[in-house]
Amino acid sequence: MTPVFTSWSQAAWAALDILLVALLIYQVLVMIRGTRAAPMLAGLVVVGVTFYLARMGELTTLNWVISRMLPYVVFALIVVFQSEIRHVLADLGRRLSFLRSGEAGSDSYDDIVLAANLFSQHQTGALIVIEREIGLRTHIESGVPLDARLSYDLLATIFRPSAPLHDGAVIIQKDRIAAAACFLPLSMNPLLSTQLGTRHRAAIGITEETDAIAVVVSEETGAISLAIGGQIERDLTVDQLRERLGSELRRYMAPVTLPTPMAGNGDEPEADFDSPLQEPAPQRSPEPGPGSEPQP
Question: Which stretches are transmembrane (predicted)?
Fold first, then answer.
């Protein structure tokens, strides 16, 4: 019975070994699909085939070159695929962290949804980055530190067109705004649409390198977009944005009542009257009437 048990045990370990290798290859292919690493991998396969033919054909000179270069191939692969390796390790760490602590807290990000709705209505460009497991300290230090409580009013004030901090990104840590006017890396993915501007490419770039979530509002069209994992979802409604944020942050986000513009009775509409994005109207001094005396 012992030889049979040993044979079955070896077969089980061999099957597990094959399964893990197949899973690893599959994850690598999924990781590089549609990225600039795909042609690099194709070139690497060509080089590997050349090395194999050189050994099979007993090409002395080429074999000598291969034997000298082989120890440095691993370092070359790390340099070439550093972005993809970093992304995979970050994704693995995020999954392990989620298994360790399933609850994400009771922080609410409804203010982001309300602010995105305001920016969309007034076609105000905005870029809001939500930090998750991977820290964004380097990017926070590139901007103006705030360390203020997350609120709709503060977001509306920061991205006001005349505000000095409206250019750049706002980075949110938990329920606090860590910094504003932050610089983010731009995505170099050649497959991105040429219609995407700097703000959208920065949102994609930060989500390619980290597990952050980026909410973007277009200045030209007012369209709301959401960038996650190097991919961008465009033309979202406010309800879709709330649902996607709740899903990604793994918390329930109760629907909130969005502010609706109210038509006034005067000649001027009141839709923009209370908007934080509007410039305050200059105060006009009352003109003296026919029977009034001039003020000293």
Answer: 12-30, 37-55, 61-81
